Amino acid sequence: MKYYYSPGTCALAGHIALLEAGFEPDLFKVDIMTRTIEPEGDYLAVNPKGYVPLLEIGEGVKLTETVAILDWIAENTPGHAARSAMERHRRIEMLAFLSSEVQRPFAYSFFLPGDEAVAMLRGMIEGRFVLIADQITGGYLLGQRAGVEDALLYVMLRWARMVGMPVPKNLIVYRDAMEERPAVRRALGEEGLI
Ligand SMILES: N[C@@H](CCC(=O)N[C@@H](CS)C(=O)NCC(=O)O)C(=O)O
C-alpha cells in the first residue's frame, strides 16, 4: 500500500486513519507546489489531479479524494465498517460536511488575496465549528470511539490553531486529546511536524 501526502495538509487525516486502522503504508512525500514526489519523481504521472492525498491500495488501484479514502479505510477496518446503510450515510454526511464546508473554505482562505475575503471565509468556518462542537456529545464526532471522521476534524482544528482561529472550548479539549493518540503522534512525527 502506498500513500502520497504533503506534511500537515488534508492528507494528514488519511495518514492518521491508516495508522489507527493498523495499516503500514509506504509513504511518499509530495511537493504540491512543484507536483514532484520527493526526492524526485513526477507526481502528475501518479495522479493527474496533482493534489494530495492519493492512496494506492495495491495492484495499481488508486483512490483519490479525502472522503473516499477515509470511507475506504473505515470499511476495511475490522469493527469499523458501517453496520447499516444509514450508519454509512451518516459517516459520509459528516465527511462531506468537513471536506466541503470546512476544508474547502479553509483552503481558499489560505490562498485568496484580500483581507475581506479571508475574514468572510474564516467567519464561515468559525460558525461551522460551533455546529460541530454541539455534535461531540459522546466524546467523538459519531459516538464514543474515534473514527476516520475524527482524523479529518483533528486536522481542521490543527489548521484553526495555526491561524489563531477561536473555536469552542470543547473542541480545544477534543483536539488536545486527539493529539495524544499514538497514531496521531506517529503520523505527526512521520510528517516531520513534531
Ligand atoms: N478534493 C480534494 C482536495 C485535496 C486538496 O485540496 N489537497 C491540497 C492539500 S490540503 C493540495 O494538494 N493542494 C494542491 C493543489 O490543489 O494543487 C480532497 O478532498 O482530497
Secondary-structure content class: alpha+beta
Reported for the largest beta sheet, the result is:
5 strands, mixed
How many beta-strand segments? 5
The name of the CATH architecture of the largest domain is Up-down Bundle
Summarize the structure.
This protein has 194 residues and is an alpha+beta fold. It has helices at residues 11-21, 43-46, 66-75, 85-111, 115-133, 148-162, 169-179, 182-190, and strands at 2-5, 26-31, 36-37, 54-58, 61-64. Helix 3 (66-75) packs antiparallel against helix 4 (85-111), helix 4 (85-111) packs parallel to helix 6 and helix 6 packs across helix 7.
Protein described:
The chain is an alpha+beta fold. The protein has 2 domains: 2-77 and 184-190, Glutaredoxin (3-Layer(aba) Sandwich), CATH 3.40.30.10; 85-181, Glutathione S-transferase Yfyf (Class Pi), Chain A, domain 2 (Up-down Bundle). Helices cover 55% and strands 11% of the residues. The chain has helices at residues 11-21, 43-46, 66-75, 85-111, 115-133, 148-162, 169-179, 182-190, and strands spanning 2-5, 26-31, 36-37, 54-58, 61-64. A hairpin with a 4-residue loop joins strand 2 and strand 3. The longest helix has 27 residues, at 85-111. It is globular and about 40 Å long. The mean pLDDT is 97.
Name the descriptors.
194 residues, Glutaredoxin, 8 helices, binds glutathione, 2 domains, Glutathione S-transferase Yfyf (Class Pi), Chain A, domain 2, 5-stranded mixed beta sheet, globular, alpha+beta
Question: Secondary-structure map with pairings?
Answer:
Layout: E1 2-5, H1 11-21, E2 26-31, E3 36-37, H2 43-46, E4 54-58, E5 61-64, H3 66-75, H4 85-111, H5 115-133, H6 148-162, H7 169-179, H8 182-190
The structure holds glutathione (GSH).
